[in-house]
Amino acid sequence: MLDVIVIGMGAHGSAGLFHLAKKGLNVLGLEQFEQIHNNGSYHGLSRIIRMGLYEGDEYLPLATRSFQLWRELEKEYNEQILYMTGIINIGNKQSPIFKNTLSSAIKHNLDYKEMDNNEIMSSFPGFNLSSDLKGVYLKDGGFLDPEKAVKAHTQLAIKNEAKINYNEKVLSWNDKTSHIEILTTKTTYKTKKLVIAAGAWNINLFDIPGLPLSVVRQVVGWFPSKNKSLFDKNKFPVWILDDGKYHGYGFPEYGNDGLKIGIFNHLNEKIYPDKYSRTITPEDIKLLSNFSSHFKETGEGENYNTCMFTNTPDENFILDKHPSTENCIIVSCCSGHGFKFSSVIGEIISDLCQTEQTGYNIDLFKISRFL
Ligand SMILES: Cc1cc2nc3c(=O)[nH]c(=O)nc-3n(C[C@H](O)[C@H](O)[C@H](O)COP(=O)(O)OP(=O)(O)OC[C@H]3O[C@@H](n4cnc5c(N)ncnc54)[C@H](O)[C@@H]3O)c2cc1C
Q1: Can you give the pTM of this predicted structure?
Q2: Is 246 exposed, middle or buried (0-12, 13-18, 19+ CB in 10 A)?
Q3: Spacing, Cα 243 to ligand 1 middle (Å)
Q4: Pocket of ligand 1 (CB under 6 A)
């Protein structure tokens, strides 16, 4: 019998499998698609990582540890995964993106600089900001290459004796008290513990009455500029910008040509992961193109692609035991801000599977807050 089966080799599942394998457990990862694919929530070349945490103090120890673990992973994998560009969180003075980042930076003594719109535009000439907007710049921010991170976690898990079966979908699972039985498209497995890290598909793998999860369609696009130096990753930071109407985010040039732009929750379309439209519509393009007016000298968008957020009502994660199956751990539902934490969440998954507890405070992520 296996010690642990992890469903989903995306952001959190791959990190969990890596840490479990490193602890010497007999583990199997199951993934419905190929090793790297663009059907879930981790594709798209870049994910923000930051100490400017406007979501709450509880995330700070997790962010600190996740930075350490990403650096350790890079060393072990021998490739760059983390790019430190700095981050600027921008909004008007009422915006939580601006206000909460500033208060968190002050409270936790972070290395930050408060800037008005003119100071931002003279430090980073790619911005085109109205006078009501202010920003908090933090040196401790940048982006991760998510596909490379997933590859590193899965390959190093295998190096540590984990097994991974790709193109094998989990259809259902049953708590048999002495063990958990898992039915896939290929066979049946027995395991002592189960980790469900299936991202947007989590909603198909557990039905917990009262747990209100929603999957929301996202779109990102790249906006090339004739003036390439404006969005060079050595000069331009990752950014989050609340303009009073939309809460956008984006990245300097990396992978594709130009500035990458997304809007949190995009058009708020609730979807099902297996049957949503990945066709880019004029409405998708209009939303992102309009937002690109906050930047100078960008051309028309290109390379648009879709992705999914799995949201909880309070936008905090789920990281907890299943309410009726002690030996099943449910992970993620990260509401669009979870990738950066996947390195530490992997470590927490392994703590929970091995000793049923963790040194991190994860009370904020309990399922019982909704039941
Ligand atoms: C456009 C976009 C931008 C984002 N930006 C940021 C950001 O800047 N910073 C940040 O921190 N976070 C960001 N996020 C959020 C982050 O990427 C997600 O929170 C994270 O990828 C979720 O990880 P996951 O492991 O839950 O899901 P995924 O990474 O999607 O992995 C789930 C895996 O489970 C597999 N699976 C599902 N069902 C089954 C089954 N039945 N059997 C076998 N395998 C199965 C899937 O195929 C998939 O590979 C963003 C997300 C999107 C969509």
Answers
A1: 0.97
A2: middle
A3: 27
A4: 7-13, 30-33, 39-42, 44, 47-48, 169-170, 197-199, 201, 205, 218, 220, 262, 307-309, 332, 334, 336-340
